[in-house]
Design brief:
The structure holds two protein chains of two kinds. By secondary structure, chain A is mainly β. Chain A contains no helices and eleven strands. Classes of the chains: A mainly beta, B mainly beta.
């Protein structure tokens, strides 16, 4: 079955560490997105990519970085510059013929 | 800029009662509107979408929503609540329906169903 796979499901980060969240899709979708979810704040866009080797900042890109070297992969790195990284992170993809498909999320906790 | 406001962060109804979740939007262009449902520690699942066709949109699991341009609203309803409807619901707006669309989400409404 086609879909989006996010890994790991749970991730713990120490202060000052960079961590990378994985997002892989086999839907052949062109566009991919990263959202951050905090209680009571809905989902906020971090980065998005419309094609390979191109990506744009969303509303809260500071402290995050991404790459899009392959169509099916869009990893998100949470850097030490992100002062409050504890959150639920959702990856999504979309194509010209379909709406969004979301992954099942990664819950990141700073310890 | 587009925005979405969901009225009520928590809604509680009895099983079998009407479910009404409120969503108001702001958009400078004709909007595309969406309702998503999220179960704990999971991703979002599309319930229904408005894409400028019929103003009354029917979705999955017995939900429907009505687009009212004069009120800038897109409220979600279900005639009879079921225990399995307990989840968090998000309204979202976009200026595009397909392709690389950026969704702007409301803050969410947590629906509780009382037995």
């Amino acid at each position: 079955d086609g879909g989006i796979t996010q890994s790991p499901k749970y991730l713990f980060r120490k202060e000052g560490q960079n961590v990378t969240l994985s997002c892989e899709q086999n839907l052949n979708h062109d566009a991919m997105y990263w959202y951050r979810q905090d209680p009571g704040q809905g989902l906020r866009l971090i980065y998005y990519s419309q094609i390979v080797n191109d990506f744009q900042k969303g509303d809260i890109a500071e402290g995050y970085s991404v790459s899009r070297e392959k169509k099916e992969s869009f990893p998100l790195t949470v850097t030490s510059a992100q002062k409050n990284p504890t959150a639920f992170y959702l990856c999504a993809s979309s194509s010209i013929n379909y709406g969004y498909t979301f992954g099942s999320g990664t819950r990141l906790t700073v310890v | 800029a587009q925005s979405v406001t969901q009225l009520g962060s928590h809604v509680s109804v009895s099983e079998g009662a009407l479910v009404l979740l409120r969503c108001n939007y702001s958009s400078s262009v004709p909007p595309y509107l969406f309702w998503y449902v999220q179960y704990p520690n999971q991703g979002l699942q599309l319930l229904l979408k408005y894409t400028s066709a019929a103003t009354l949109v029917k979705g999955i699991n017995g939900f429907e929503a009505e687009f009212k341009k004069s009120e800038t609203s897109f409220h979600l309803t279900k005639p009879s609540a079921h225990m399995s409807d307990a989840a968090e619901y998000f309204c979202a707006v976009s200026d595009a329906f397909q392709g690389a669309q950026k969704l702007v989400f409301g803050q969410g409404t947590r629906l509780t169903i009382n037995p």
